[in-house]
Design a protein that fits this description.
Layout lengths: L3 E7 L6 H12 L2 E4 H11 L2 H11 L6 H14 L7 E4 L5 H14 L3 E9 L2 H10 E4 L7 E3 L21 E2 L6 H23 L5 E5 L4 H13 L1
Parallel strand pairs: 1-3, 1-4, 2-3, 4-8
Antiparallel strand pairs: 5-6, 5-7
Helix pairs in contact: 1-8, 2-3, 4-5
Length: 226
């Protein structure tokens, strides 16, 4: 009997991890956790942790490894049943986080295997996506769109979600200035994280996210069928 899987989506901010995750949830019924969403929930609740996170993200900096790990562990404990495949996007970002995740899996999810997927995208296209990115304000939906005239991800009605009709909003950190800092931080750690898993004999699956999200999803389904 095959094990359940945890899919880790790697890629810089704006590479399409969230959009791909949404399609996986819709198509496969998988569970999805985004460390970014966990952070934004804390900000929305106005907790002390949320205030710290807000200050860091507005500077384009990442939240501490320990804080992210605590939120992820809490998410796992709050799930009534973890019997489906799981997507974690935006984590781990550092080698230390990869170590922490391994320990979380050992103690809380021993019956799951890891599948690593890296999304590749050109830097210029990435910047264009970030500048035009908007998302559904309904947290239960979270659909991502683009305001670019040339994008296939434009909403049918301006600034309205096609799925639930909620208002679309722009993230406060979706600016070129913030992106520059976030990319610098991301690429500083990317190779260390990937090497951590390669040294353990694991394969890194790669996808080009320069195509439409539907094409990315079709390529991803080939990985799932392997």
């Amino acid at each position: 009997m095959s094990k359940n899987k945890i899919f880790l989506f790697f890629g810089p901010p704006g590479s399409g991890k969230g959009s791909l995750s949404s399609l996986c949830v819709e198509h496969f019924g998988w569970q999805h956790v985004s460390t970014g969403d966990l952070c934004r929930e804390q900000i929305k609740l106005g907790t002390d942790i949320g205030k710290q996170i807000k200050s860091l993200t507005e500077q384009g900096l990442f939240v501490s490894d320990e804080l992210i790990a605590d939120m992820l562990a809490q998410w796992m404990m709050n799930q009534k049943e973890l019997s489906q495949d799981i997507i974690i996007d935006g984590y781990p970002r550092t080698k230390k986080q990869a170590d922490i995740l391994n320990e979380l899996m050992r103690t809380r999810l021993p019956d799951f295997d890891l599948v690593l997927v890296k999304l590749n995208i050109d830097a210029e296209l990435l910047a264009d996506r970030i500048v035009h990115r908007v998302s559904c304000s309904n947290k239960k939906c979270g659909q991502i769109y683009s305001t670019s005239q040339a994008s296939q991800s434009r909403p049918g009605i301006d600034m309205k979600c096609d799925k639930c009709n909620s208002v679309l909003v722009k993230r406060s950190d979706d600016t070129l200035e913030s992106l520059k800092a976030r990319l610098q931080e991301y690429y500083k750690h990317e190779q260390d994280v990937l090497s951590f898993y390669i040294d353990k004999g694991m394969t890194i699956e790669t996808l080009s996210s320069e195509q439409s999200v539907q094409h990315v999803f079709e390529d991803f389904k080939k990985i799932v069928r392997q």
